[in-house]
Amino acid sequence: MKLLKILPILFALLIIPCQSFADMPEITAGQTYFDVMKGHYVLKDNVRVVMNNHGLKATVTANEARVNVVAQKCWALGDVTFSHVDYDLKCDDAYLQWQTKTADLVGGIDFKGKKSVAVTSNKATFNWEEKIADFYGDVKVTAEKDLQFAEDLKLEDDVVYAHVRYNVTENKILQLDKTFDIPNIEIPDPDK
After folding, report:
1. Residue 184: helix, strand or coil by DSSP?
2. pLDDT (tens digit, 9 = 90+) per residue, 85-101?
3. pTM over cut 0.85
4. Distance from CA of residue 106 to its chain's centroid?
5. pLDDT tens readout for residues 125-170
6. Of the candidates 144, 137, 120, 114, which has an alpha carbon nearest to the alpha carbon of residue 183?
7. What does the CA dihedral 146, 177, 88, 58 come to, rounded to 10 degrees?
8. Which one-letter DSSP state was computed for residue 178?
9. Torsion angles phi and psi, residue 5, rounded to 5
10. How many helices (H) and strands (E) does the chain have?
11. What's the CA gap between 139 and 164, in Å, rounded?
12. Cα separations (Å) of 35 from 39, 61, 66, 81?
C-alpha cells in the first residue's frame, strides 16, 4: 500500500523537471554528426534548426552550426537567417540560447520586420521572448508611416545611429542613439 502512495510522487518528480526544458529542436543538414566528446551536433551544408521553446518557435538556417541540446545553445556560422512569424533577421554569425531566449548576432545584420521596418547594423542582440532587438554600429533604419516611437524620439533622414532599440511586437523604436558605448558582442567558441 505504501508503494501505491510513493509511485505518484516518483512519477511527478520525473515528469516535472522534463517539462521545464524546451522541446528537442528539429535538426537537418547536408552533413550531420554528434561529437560525443564535446556534447553537440556538428552540422554542415544547408543547416536548418527549428526551435520550439514553450510555444516560441523560431527557425535558424546557416552554412554551418553546432547545437548542444542539453545546454540548449546553437552556434550558427555563415549566411545565418533567424526567422519568426513577425520578422526575418540575417547576419554572418549567431549564438542562440533557448533558456534565456536570446541571440547575439554579428556581421552584416539585416532585419526585416513584417510591420514596416527594416534595420541594418554591424551587431545586434535579440530577446525573442520580450521581442526586443538592440542594433549596434552603423545602424540604419528604414520605416513606413506605421512605425511608432517612444516619447521625444523621431527618426532623422539619412542619419546613421550607433544604437537603436526596437520592440518587434509593438513596432516601436524605444531608443535612438547617435553616440553609444557599443558592447563587445562576440560569438563564443563552442569548444569551450
Report:
1. coil
2. 778 899 999 999 988 88
3. no
4. 12
5. 999 888 899 999 999 999 877 788 999 898 888 899 999 999 988 8
6. 137
7. -110
8. S
9. -80, -30
10. 1, 12
11. 7
12. 6, 20, 10, 24
